[in-house]
C-alpha cells in the first residue's frame, strides 16, 4: 500500500498578481523541505518554477509549474503536498485559471509592499466561484515601511470578516508566531491573544458540540479542531492569513505546517463539478478502488518530447501499465509508469492515488479539459467549464517564408491547445488568418515562442475589426428569381419578413409557408440563400446577428423550380428586407480595468476619453495605486499597451473582457459602408 493514500494528499495553487513572489515562495518551500539543496532566484533564472527560456528572459512566470514536497504530521504520518506556481500577469491568466481545477486550496500571494492588486481580487473571486478553499499569504512582510495592520484592515474590507490571521510576524519580523496553538507572544502588530481567540471562535462555530464546550469551558484544545476548520475552509467561513518572507526564508516551515495540518485532503474538500453528456451531474469520489477518472488541466507541446498532458487524478488508481482512454475515444493508451513533475523534471512512481497531479506524454488525442478514464467509465463526462476571458485582441498572421502556410497552421494549433485564452480565426472573405488573445503583449509573447521554440517566423498586421451587423426594425422582403436559357429554366419566388432579436440571441429561421406555396423540400434552399446574406453582410460586409427570418409565402413552377432558384430567391428577398429594416453596424465594447499610480489618473482618463471610452468607476488601492474601470470600443485600444506604458512610465497595467456589442456612431457606419461594395445580384 502506498504511503501517500488520498488522506495524506494536499494540493495548493500559488496564485496572485505578478511579482508578488510566488515563484520565490515555492523555491523557498522546496529548499526548507530539503527537496532542493541550493536555492535558486528569479534573477539568476535557476528556480524550479521558472525553467522555460522565455521565463528566464522576461524575469517572471509565463506558465504553470508543478512541484511537490513530502512532510509529516505531528504524529509522523507522511503527507505529500503538490504545489502549483502560476503566472500572475493578466496576459497569462489562462494558465493561472486552468490551475484552479487541479487543486483543492488556492493560496493567494500578496506583496506586502503593494497590497491588494488587480489579480488579487480576480483570483479570490474565481476561486470562490470554483468552490475552492482559500487562504492568503502576505509575502515580503519584513520590508521597510510596510503597514501590516493597515493591510489586514484592507484585506478584511475587500474580502470580508472571514479573513483572519493564522499567524503573525514577531516584533522584530525575524519569525512568525503560530496563533492557532498559541495565545501568547509579542507580535509586530495586533494581539496574539485576541487573534487566537478570534480564529478559534470562528472555527468552533462550525460544530455545535464543540461550540457548546467552548462556551462552557472558555477554551478548547486546538488539536480537535481539524474537522470544523476544514469545514470552515470548505464553506468559505474562514480565509486564513499567513505571513512569509520567501527571499529571507522566514515562515517557510510554518507555512508547510499549515498546509499539512490545516488544509483539507481530497476527501474533506468540496467535490469537483463533473457532468454527463446529457447535462446531469456526475459524482466523483476520491476512492482508489473506483474506476479511474482524471482531468487534464494543462497541455504543453515540447518540440522534442511531443505533447504532454498534466492531469489531476480525481478517482481510481493509476499504476504501472495502466490502460486509459481519452474522452470518447475508443483507442486506449498505456501508461508505462506514472510520472510526477518536479519543475521540468519527470519522476517515475509506482502508483498514483486520488489527489495526485501527474503527467502523460505522447498522447496526441489529449487536449485541455480532456477526461482520462479506464473502460469501466463511459465517455461523455466533462468538468464544469471555467469562464476564461474571451480573446478579443487580434493580429492577422502569415508566414514570413513562402511555403510555411501548413506549418504555421500546425504551430498555431499547438499554441491554442496550450492556452485557453487564445483563438485562431480564418476569414475567408478577407483571406486572412487572425490570432486572437487577451492583449497585444499576450500575442507578442506567443509569436516570440513560435519563433524561438518552433523556429517559425511570422509576419503580422492589423486585422479587420470583428464588427457585426443587425437590424433595428421589422420589415418584409420579396424576390422572384426567373431565368430562361433554353430548355428547362429557373424559377422561384419568396416572401419573407425579418425581425430584430435581443443581443446575443443569434439567428432563427421560421417556416410559415401554407398550402405548399413552396414545397417543403425547397425550404432548406431558401434558408441557404438567407444564410449566405447573413455571412456576407449588408452594410459593410460583416456577419449579421440577432435576427429572426420568417418565410411565409412564395410560388414555384413544377418544372423550373430547382434548389438553385430558391437559393437565389431567398438571397434576393433577404437583401430586399434588410434594406427596409434599418440595418445597423455593431462594434465590440470591452470592459477595461487599469491599475496605475494615482498621480497619472488624469492622463489615463483623458486618453481613454479620446478613444471614445468612458470611466465607470475608480478605487484607491494601497501604495498610492488607483484602479480605474471603464468601457471602451475595442477599436480604441489599438496600440494601447505602448500608450499606457508611456503615460505611466511603465508602472501601469490593464486587462479587458468583452462587455457587449453596441451600434457604432453614424459617421463610422457611413465611412465603413462607403468602402464596401456588395456584389450585384443577377436577375
From TrEMBL:
Keywords: Elongation factor, GTP-binding, Nucleotide-binding, Protein biosynthesis
Annotated Tr-type G domain residues: 7-267
Gene Ontology terms, MF aspect: translation elongation factor activity
Record's keyword annotation contains Protein biosynthesis: yes
UniProt keyword GTP-binding present: yes
Cross-referenced Gene3D superfamilies: 3.30.230.10, 3.30.70.240, Elongation Factor G (Translational Gtpase), domain 3, P-loop containing nucleotide triphosphate hydrolases, Translation factors
Role: Catalyzes the GTP-dependent ribosomal translocation step during translation elongation. During this step, the ribosome changes from the pre-translocational (PRE) to the post-translocational (POST) state as the newly formed A-site-bound peptidyl-tRNA and P-site-bound deacylated tRNA move to the P and E sites, respectively. Catalyzes the coordinated movement of the two tRNA molecules, the mRNA and conformational changes in the ribosome.
Name the record gives this protein: Elongation factor G
Organism from which the protein derives: Parasutterella secunda
Amino acid at each position: 500500500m502506498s504511503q501517500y493514500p488520498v488522506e495524506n494528499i494536499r494540493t495548493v495553487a500559488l496564485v496572485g498578481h505578478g511579482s508578488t513572489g510566488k515563484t520565490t515562495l515555492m523555491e523557498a518551500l522546496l529548499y526548507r523541505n530539503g527537496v532542493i539543496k541550493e536555492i535558486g532566484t528569479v534573477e539568476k533564472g535557476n528556480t524550479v518554477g521558472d525553467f522555460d527560456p522565455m521565463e528566464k528572459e522576461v524575469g517572471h512566470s509565463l506558465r504553470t509549474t508543478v512541484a511537490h514536497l513530502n512532510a509529516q504530521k505531528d504524529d509522523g504520518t507522511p503527507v505529500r503536498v503538490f504545489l502549483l506556481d502560476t503566472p500572475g500577469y493578466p496576459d497569462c491568466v489562462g494558465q493561472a485559471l486552468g490551475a484552479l481545477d487541479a487543486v483543492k486550496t488556492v493560496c493567494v500571494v500578496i506583496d506586502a509592499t503593494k497590497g491588494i492588486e488587480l489579480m488579487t481580487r480576480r483570483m479570490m473571486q474565481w476561486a470562490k466561484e470554483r468552490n475552492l478553499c482559500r487562504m492568503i499569504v502576505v509575502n515580503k512582510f519584513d520590508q521597510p515601511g510596510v503597514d501590516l495592520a493597515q493591510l489586514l484592515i484592507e484585506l478584511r474590507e475587500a474580502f470580508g470578516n472571514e479573513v483572519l490571521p493564522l499567524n503573525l510576524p514577531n516584533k522584530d519580523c525575524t519569525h512568525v508566531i503560530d496563533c492557532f496553538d498559541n495565545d501568547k507572544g509579542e507580535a509586530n502588530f495586533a494581539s496574539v491573544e485576541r487573534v487566537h481567540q478570534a480564529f478559534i471562535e470562528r472555527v468552533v462555530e462550525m460544530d455545535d458540540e464543540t461550540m457548546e464546550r467552548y462556551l462552557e469551558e472558555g477554551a478548547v484544545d486546538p488539536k480537535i479542531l481539524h474537522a470544523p476548520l476544514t469545514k470552515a475552509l470548505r464553506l468559505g467561513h474562514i480565509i486564513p492569513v499567513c505571513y512569509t518572507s520567501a527571499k529571507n526564508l522566514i515562515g517557510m516551515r510554518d507555512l508547510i505546517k499549515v498546509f499539512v495540518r490545516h488544509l483539507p485532503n481530497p476527501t474533506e474538500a468540496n467535490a469537483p463539478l463533473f457532468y454527463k453528456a446529457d447535462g446531469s451531474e456526475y459524482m466523483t469520489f476520491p476512492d482508489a478502488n473506483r474506476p479511474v477518472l482524471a482531468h487534464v488541466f494543462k497541455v504543453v507541446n515540447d518540440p522534442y518530447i511531443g505533447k504532454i498532458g498534466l492531469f489531476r487524478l480525481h478517482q481510481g488508481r493509476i499504476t504501472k501499465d495502466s490502460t486509459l482512454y481519452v474522452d470518447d475515444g475508443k483507442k486506449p493508451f498505456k501508461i508505462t509508469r506514472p510520472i510526477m513533475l518536479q519543475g521540468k523534471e519527470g519522476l517515475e512512481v509506482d502508483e498514483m492515488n486520488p489527489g495526485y497531479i501527474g503527467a502523460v506524454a505522447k498522447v496526441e488525442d489529449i487536449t485541455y479539459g480532456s477526461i482520462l478514464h479506464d473502460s469501466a467509465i463511459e465517455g461523455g463526462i466533462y468538468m464544469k467549464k471555467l469562464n476564461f476571458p474571451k480573446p478579443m485582441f487580434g493580429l492577422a498572421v502569415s508566414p514570413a517564408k513562402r511555403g510555411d502556410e501548413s506549418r504555421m497552421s500546425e504551430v498555431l494549433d499547438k499554441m491554442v491547445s496550450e492556452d485557453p485564452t487564445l483563438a485562431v480565426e480564418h476569414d475567408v472573405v478577407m483571406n486572412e488568418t487572425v490570432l486572437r488573445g487577451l492583449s497585444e503583449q499576450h500575442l507578442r509573447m506567443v509569436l516570440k515562442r513560435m519563433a524561438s521554440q518552433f523556429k517559425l517566423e511570422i509576419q503580422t498586421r492589423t486585422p479587420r475589426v470583428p464588427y457585426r451587423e443587425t437590424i433595428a426594425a421589422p420589415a418584409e422582403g420579396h424576390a422572384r428569381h426567373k431565368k430562361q436559357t433554353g430548355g428547362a429554366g429557373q424559377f422561384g419566388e419568396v416572401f419573407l419578413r425579418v425581425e430584430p432579436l435581443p443581443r446575443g440571441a443569434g439567428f432563427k429561421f421560421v417556416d410559415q409557408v401554407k398550402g405548399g406555396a413552396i414545397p417543403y423540400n425547397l425550404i432548406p434552399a431558401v434558408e441557404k440563400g438567407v444564410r449566405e446574406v447573413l455571412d456576407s453582410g449588408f452594410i459593410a460586409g460583416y456577419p449579421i446577428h440577432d435576427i429572426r427570418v420568417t418565410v411565409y409565402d412564395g410560388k414555384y413552377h413544377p418544372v423550373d423550380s430547382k434548389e438553385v432558384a430558391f437559393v437565389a430567391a431567398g438571397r434576393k428577398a433577404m437583401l430586399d428586407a434588410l434594406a427596409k429594416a434599418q440595418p445597423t453596424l455593431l462594434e465590440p465594447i470591452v470592459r477595461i480595468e487599469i491599475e496605475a499610480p494615482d498621480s497619472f489618473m488624469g492622463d489615463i482618463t483623458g486618453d481613454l476619453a479620446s478613444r471614445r471610452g468612458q470611466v465607470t468607476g475608480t478605487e484607491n488601492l494601497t501604495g498610492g495605486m488607483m484602479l480605474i474601470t471603464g468601457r471602451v470600443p475595442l477599436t480604441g485600444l489599438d496600440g494601447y499597451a505602448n500608450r499606457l506604458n508611456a503615460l505611466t512610465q511603465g508602472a501601469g497595467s490593464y486587462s479587458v473582457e468583452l462587455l457587449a456589442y453596441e451600434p457604432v456612431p453614424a459617421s463610422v457606419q457611413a465611412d465603413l459602408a462607403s468602402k464596401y461594395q456588395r456584389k450585384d445580384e443577377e436577375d
